[in-house]
Amino acid sequence: MSQQIQAVGRRKEAVCRLYLTPGSGKWDVNGRALGDYFPRPTLVSAIQQPFTLTDTMGRFDVKAVLDGGGVSGQAGAVRLAVARALVKVDESNKRKLREFGLLTRDAREVERKKAGRAGARKRFQYSKR
Q1: What is the Cα–Cα distance from 30 to 64, expressed in whole angstroms?
Q2: Which of 118, 107, 56 has the alpha carbon at shortest distance from 80?
Q3: How far apart are the C-alpha atoms of 13 and 53, rounded to whole Å?
Q4: DSSP for 47-90?
Q5: What is the pTM of this model?
Q6: Nearest 5 degrees, angle CA 44-CA 48-CA 53?
């Protein structure tokens, strides 16, 4: 595999376009290093989970273009894109990644605020008198 693999990942409002090329494990997330873009170590380890499970850590260079959403949503989008790309690299990775739920798109979105309410579900305080 000498060519570049492309994959897309989404989570909440975040979209990640990922490019995987054989290399030394260099990360480029919107022009920055992985640890610079995602300062929380929990997010970094979550993003690298597909590589850890498939024993491919450090074998690919990753370029991620992120758009929309917040930090946590973007991290989830990158994780899904990495998992999808690793399946394109080697089909035998699919079973392991599926087992840990890394190929399932998390479809939960923010519920919209309803008219006459404080939020999506919150009611105003009831006063009997």
Answers
A1: 6
A2: 107
A3: 26
A4: HHHHHHHTT-TTSEEEEEEEESS-HHHHHHHHHHHHHHHHHHH-
A5: 0.90
A6: 145
Q: Would you state the pLDDT for residue 2?
A: 60
The two tokens of residue 47 are: 């993003």
**What domains can you pick out in the chain, each with its CATH number?**
5-99 (3.30.230.10)
Q: Is the pLDDT of residue 57 over 80?
A: yes
Q: What is the pLDDT of residues 8-49, one digit of tens each?
A: 999 999 999 999 999 998 999 999 999 999 999 999 999 999
Label residue 87 left, alpha or beta by phi (over 0 means left) and psi (-120 to 50 means alpha): alpha
CA distance 70 to 16: 12
Residue 1 has pLDDT above 80, yes or no: no
Distance of CA 99 to the CA centre of its chain: 17
CB atoms within 10 A of CB 40: 12
